[in-house]
Design a protein that fits this description.
The protein is of the alpha/beta class. It folds into two domains: 95 residues, no CATH class; 133 residues, no CATH class. It is built from four helices and nine strands; from the N terminus they run ααααβββββββββ. InterPro entries: Cell_wall_LiaF (IPR016975), DUF7649 (IPR056066), LiaF-like_C (IPR024425), LiaF_C (IPR047793). This is Cell wall-active antibiotics response protein LiaF. Keywords: Membrane, Transmembrane, Transmembrane helix.
Length: 237
């Protein structure tokens, strides 16, 4: 991951953690807020009187109760889960870099249903179009992946469809200059870049865009994407 990407993920995690703390303290477990305030006051006065035994008791007692209270919140559990997932993801990425990206098969062994090509892969990198291939409409479902669809190495029909659903990761679609597209993109949090237009830090958005010559174009591509957390980039190439 690049430094910018890391900062974006950290920014997102901090925002979600703060929201979870706020919801839990204000709406779910209001008693926790009272404990946090009481423990903070004990720490404050204990520090001022730390030279006395009473001050030490107040300080360390307040610190202990504050630590236990925060540790038992859902927000902290969420952050711990994110750390575990991140470590697993880094390990898996290193393994994928050693093996190279997985190309979606375009042979008879591929999973086809109703004339569409399904390339489900829950984790890792998915790259369709690294080599020449026969076009079939694409439907991909993934959990954590970087997905790249290159439309330059195939012959597209008059109407082509791409459907991608994933939880976390980046989706990149490379479109030839003579092909026009219509995009329906839903994202809980993430960036969206379509040609020369960029929307940063979108939160709970549904974005519908259409290239200028779509209505009159002979060849058109419909792109439907649903991403919980991640980035969609549609570019010419």
């Amino acid at each position: 991951m690049k430094n910018k990407s890391k900062s974006e993920w950290i920014h997102l995690i901090v925002i979600i953690g703060c929201i979870l703390f706020f919801i839990e303290f204000i709406f779910i477990e209001t008693g926790l807020l009272f404990i946090v305030i009481t423990a903070s006051i004990a720490i404050y006065y204990g520090r001022k009187r730390y030279y006395k035994t009473t001050g030490k008791v107040l300080f360390w007692g307040g610190a202990f109760f504050l630590f236990i209270t925060i540790l038992n919140t859902f927000a902290v559990r969420f952050l711990l889960l994110v750390i575990v997932i991140y470590l697993f993801w880094k390990w898996y990425k290193r393994r994928q870099e050693q093996q190279g990206p997985i190309c979606i098969p375009t042979t008879k062994e591929a999973n086809r249903e109703n004339g569409k090509l399904y390339g489900n892969k829950w984790f890792g990198s998915i790259h369709q179009g690294a080599h020449a291939y026969v076009w079939e409409d694409i439907n991909i479902q993934s959990i954590v992946s970087d997905i790249t669809i290159d439309l330059n190495n195939t012959v597209l029909p008059d109407e082509a469809t791409i459907i991608i659903r994933q939880i976390v990761g980046k989706v990149t679609i490379i479109v030839p200059y003579e092909i026009e597209v219509i995009i329906d993109h839903s994202v809980l949090y993430g960036d969206t870049v379509v040609f020369d237009q960029e929307l940063q830090y979108g939160f709970n958005r549904n974005i519908q865009m259409k290239s200028e010559g779509y209505d009159t174009s002979i060849q058109r591509v419909r792109i439907y994407t649903q991403v919980w957390i991640g980035k969609l980039e549609v570019k010419r190439g």
